[in-house]
Description:
The protein is mainly beta. It has 1 helix and 37 strands. It has 2 domains: about 1-330, Methylamine Dehydrogenase, Chain H; about 335-415, Ubiquitin-like (UB roll), CATH 3.10.20. Helices cover about 5% and strands about 55% of the residues.
Amino acid sequence: MKRFYAALVLLVFVFAAHSVLAAPYAYITQPELGTLSVIDTVKHKKVTTINVGGAPYALTMSPDGRTAYVAHTTYPPMAGWISVIDVLTHSVIDTIPVGTEPEGAVVLPNGSKLYVTDCGSSPGITIIDTSSNSVVNTIPFGRCPWGIAAHPDGSKVYITDWTDNLVARIDTVSETVDMTMTVGSSPLGITIRPNSTEAYVTNTFGLSISVIDTSNTSVIDTIILPGPPDFVAFNTSGTRAYVTNQWGTADMWVIDTGSRAVVSTISLGTQSYGIDATPDGAYVYVAVCGWDEKRDKEINCGVRVIETATNTVKKKIKLPGGASSAGKFIGGPQYHMTVATSGSGKVISKKLPDIDCGGGGIKCEADFYVDRKVQLQAIADEGFVFIGWSGGACTKKSKNCTLVIKDDYSVTANFEPK
């Protein structure tokens, strides 16, 4: 974590259709090693490592989950670039030069453009066309743009400026800064709260969160915290905010977004950085890493998996290399499954209650993440018998069909009278 600590210390002195029915993967940047660890969020286990080089820090996913964009630089900062990752093959398919210190990245909801903040020698925002992976515009702004978030409708992008204590709003049509506002001291992360017009801004050395109304871009509340916040993630409904804490105690906080009060403190045993929630809201993944200044060595680095039902640490995953992952780092490709029945019977999925089709059930389609195992079972009604599958995905005549998701699938279970 040398780069991140050194950068922040320097700044002090200079003064983030169909329902998703299976869990995706978490992509954790490791700036000390120049790698990206991929974690299965069903088993909470690391499945592979991607070498990306440099000092990868921030990460964001494309809306379709098929591409990850990793922002990284050299240490000390001399050059920055974006690595474009094909999630299906776990490989770097392109690199895009940007400013010297890219700190945050977000893809517009329609997937057309990637916005990257730069706190380096020429501070501002780089705009990249994702179809060609080329820089199409740069917007000079502030002294240290850092956090970034896109409005759900794609019309605006919001940027924090760590040094000037500002949040800027960018109009994505004109690609210009059309409004700025003052927030607390050293704003770092910014995240849009689901199902609302609110954005939460972490004021690291202001020990607070500024709550912004995005409909008129005004600060409507300030949430005082026990320590310095870094980044925020929300549960699916937006009723809870989870806040990481790098500079203070080895804790993170849970905020009730209705009362805007801290309702729980979770002990992590080390400092925390990037944070993201699984789509079903069941878990929050937190990148953690401490630093022993005397020994000049990282300690307790990896991931903490938080179970949101109990606000407790369910699992600790050890990862060397200064786990960071600022941004939206949980995702992956999804494919669609459609199930039908012919005759009198039904189809269910055996381990996950995602498919319940025919025989009174109405759940005949669902989205699943790539490489997930789905086990279908055909059950004939009384007086009928299962005679086989059609549609191509299931070929055996057994009533049980197991599919490892690699594509869109359409299957039909056929029944006939005995």
